[in-house]
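Hey all, quick one. A colleague (J.T.) asked me to put the adenosine-5'-diphosphate job into the tracker so the inputs and the structure tokens live in one place instead of scattered across chat threads. No bug as far as I know, just bookkeeping. Sequence used:
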Amino acid sequence: MKEFQLIEQFFTNRGQKRRDVTLGIGDDCALVQPCEGKVIAISCDTLVEGVHFFADMPAKALGYKSLAANLSDLAAMGAEPAWMTLALSLPDVDEKWLEQFSLGLFEAAEYYGVALIGGDTTRGPKCINITIHGQVPEKKALKRSGANIGDWVFVTGTLGDSALGLDILTGDKQVAEEDKAYLINRHYYPTPRVLAGHALRGLASSAIDLSDGLSSDLGHILKASDVGAVIELDSLPLSEQLTNNVDQQQALAYALTGGEDYELLFTVPESQRGAIATALLHAGVKFARIGQICAGDKLKFTLNGEPFKSEFKGFKHF
Ligand code: ADP
Ligand code: MG
């Protein structure tokens, strides 16, 4: 199968049709029509076999997750997903793999209203790169730099499930049979919090998505905002599938340092606390208050009201 046939069969005319795509796949560039009064939010992510995913990861999950990771970045800015490009490097043309990969990719694309408008296909080690474009009303994007002393710290969903799911897959952890599928699914099929991101616009003072672990990602907000924070470890939202299978110390380690939760962490001034609760309830997203922004530049923890010393660090790529 030639490159053009491959594109035609698996990627052209699939998924969302958007009226703002003037010219899609097939020319040297795609053309899109941005919405007036909005700015374009752009982000890209690369997944390399053996580094970001194992060779035996189901292709459908890989297709879904490649896009979900990008959508999570848009969510963290409060942006609405619109267009994506896909750069694929593949060692060979494996039609079964491509069929499943594209199925997972377009499942996420359809759900979140993203059109595939172009890409690049080459031979090489297996590697997936997606560039996503979203739109957000001018001056309304959620940034890392807006947290203020006294703001409350919140997260969506539950923390640490994805990292435990990964440990189950690698054989590093064993869990009760009835919890296995849930935890592995949280690793393979994370939910990008796009609706929550919209709901937070104009209300949250800062936001970030949790890809490298809470400790590390909250650290980015603290640095960008030039503040510190106190996190109450007993307030971290944990799934029963997690707490059923590991002790408290391990649960905290998963929640604070486990990567790829793709939940949102955000800060809220006291004046917007009620409005946020209403907005997130409407978005149907669970959320929890886990601490508060304070003066200084340190991330501190408490457990049952007492200071808690820890060495919890997030994932580092280098
Ligand atoms: P060029 O050589 O001008 O970069 P290509 O021959 O690589 O163009 O690609 C032809 C068309 O197919 C372009 O519109 C490109 O955006 C699109 N395309 C290539 N690979 C992919 C892919 N994996 N997914 C979606 N579109 C693709
Ligand atoms: Mg090309």
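Adding what we noticed when we looked at it: The radius of gyration is 20 Å. Residues 152-308 form a domain with the Phosphoribosyl-aminoimidazole Synthetase; Chain A, domain 2 fold (CATH 3.90.650.10).
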